[in-house]
Amino acid sequence: MDEETQALLTLVLAGGGLPARRALACARPSVAAALDAGPVAWRQAGCSPGQQRRLAAPDAAALEAALRWMQQAGHHLLPLGDPRFPALLRTIPEPPLALFVHGDPAPLWHPSIAVVGSRSPTPSGRALAAEFSTAFCDAGLAVISGLAAGVDAAAHRAALAADGLTIAVIGSGPDAVFPSHHVALQREIADHGVVVSEYPPGTPARAAHFPARNRLVAGLALATVVIEAANRSGALITARLAAEAGREVCALPGSVRNPRAAGCHRLIRDGAALVETPAEVMALIAPQLATALPDLQCRLQAPTEQGRRAHLPAHMASEPDYQTLWKALDHDPIPMDSLITHSGLTAARLSSMLLAMELAGIVVCEHGRYCRNPGFPTSTASR
Prior knowledge:
Elements: H1 3-13, H2 18-26, H3 31-36, H4 39-44, H5 49-56, H6 60-70, E1 75-79, H7 87-90, E2 98-103, E3 112-117, H8 123-138, E4 142-145, H9 151-161, E5 166-169, H10 183-192, E6 194-197, H11 209-220, E7 223-227, H12 234-244, E8 248-251, H13 262-269, E9 273-274, H14 278-300, H15 314-317, H16 320-328, E10 334-335, H17 336-343, H18 347-359, E11 363-366, E12 369-372
Parallel strand pairs: 3-4, 3-7, 4-5, 5-6, 7-8, 8-9
Antiparallel strand pairs: 1-2, 2-6, 10-12, 11-12
Helix pairs in contact: 8-9, 9-10, 11-12, 14-18
């Protein structure tokens, strides 16, 4: 284990309040230098007596367990300053010191929507979680959730079934599974998406971890969609944290006789967007995505204005609305109102379709106007 990795793990394992540990890490050119500065510097950074004791005498067994975990294939440790650390997560009020990642870290940069809700949803709530998650994946977005029972699991499973990207943020170490019956699901997500935690290997799931976990779910996503949540649901914590991070918060309304809808209704009263379709969610995040897309495309090596040559994805090629929109587009940029007039499609439907086509490198947005990507072939798509 190199000196910097050992120092970072020691700082993570010290536990306690994040602000002091983050201040200490930022006070020197490296975490190793910060720990070498000694107790006076630790105290000046605000570290508690307990944190100072654990920094002075780190848990050797815990360090060894973390090292063994990191040496396995597909396991990564991303410090806050690592170029692979997701940019959106750096901007939240309390970013983690590091992320323990099982799977490919690249999806952490992918434009994503969080789908959260009740751990015991109605059949309708479970179906809506699957429907929304499938639609987001079909549009090229990733689905984030917390791997809990109920809505979370339904969202992850739907994303996997759609061959989409899904990200599970867990409230334990990356080597633990909670609930225990999600062993196979967590493994599948790690194989096809990514499982992420701020807690080191060997950390069991604890009730206090889940509100902290929720801030990462909210922080990684452009929007959080709440599907069935009671008034005391943890999903409401995720929604509040999303709002505090400046992200969109959306809630699906339900029956006034369904206690699992009470939290959603409360969110809507407090200003969350009332949504009934995935297209409405995607329309809400379109401005954020348009701003972030150039950097995200560069990071993900996705198509740019000189995009890759490809045919329309099957789900687009088979839909008349996509063919209609393709015919309405030209090589000269066209404003949204003209596209509405020429295509006969609604603004919400157009926004979601354009978002999907932009992510696929099929169209380019220039100052709010849309045109065909010059690098995209017209031989089959325009028929």
